[in-house]
Amino acid sequence: MKRRLALFTVLLGALVPTGSAQATNDLALCTLDYEVAIAPGLVPVPTTATYTTDGDTGTVSCQSLAGGNRGTRVGRLAASGVIGLFGGATCTEGIGGGTFSFTFPAADGPTRMTSDYAFSWAGPTGDLNGSAMSGTFELAAVAGNCVTAAITRARVHSVGILRAR
């Protein structure tokens, strides 16, 4: 596990933007809720799988933290990526990476943004850190149980900070 954590740290460093510490981003506290299809599924032995929300099927609700605008924005999200980087993942632990695509309605047309991210988990909880979104998440199986059947669908609830550029 220490080797995986070291590799995760290297991957994470590649995804975190560098630059000036000036406040050039608007920050928001966001809650994300979505389901992912996992293929071929998570099982008790280390494996690699892909995941997707199959389009803008998730919801994102953000409360502004910067810029004096304290409004709430609600939008849609899509997510996709790979589970099991650096040697595979099991039902109970792993490392992965992916991309969020966010769409927020606006008077002059939808606002879109993306965030590449890396994540790791142990048990039902984990951390994610990306180019625009970082936080924690909880994972709950929707299809499969990892004992008699692979987990092929999961519900994800995440809370974190979104940095809009």
Characterization of the model:
The protein has one domain. It is 8% helix and 58% strand. A hairpin with a 6-residue loop joins strand 5 and strand 6. The longest helix has 14 residues. The radius of gyration is 16 Å and the shape is elongated. The termini are far apart.
SSE run: HEEEEEEEEE
The domain count comes to 1
Shape: elongated
Unreliable residue stretches: 1-24
Q: Quote the distance from N terminus to C terminus.
A: 35 Å
By secondary-structure content and strand pairing, the structural class works out as mainly beta
Helix content: under 10%
Number of helices: 1
- What is the beta-strand fraction? over 45%
**Oligomeric composition of the shown chains:** single chain
User: Biggest β-sheet: count, sense, barrel?
Assistant: 9 strands, antiparallel
Rg from alpha-carbon coordinates: 16 Å
Overall number of strands: 9
Mean pLDDT: 85
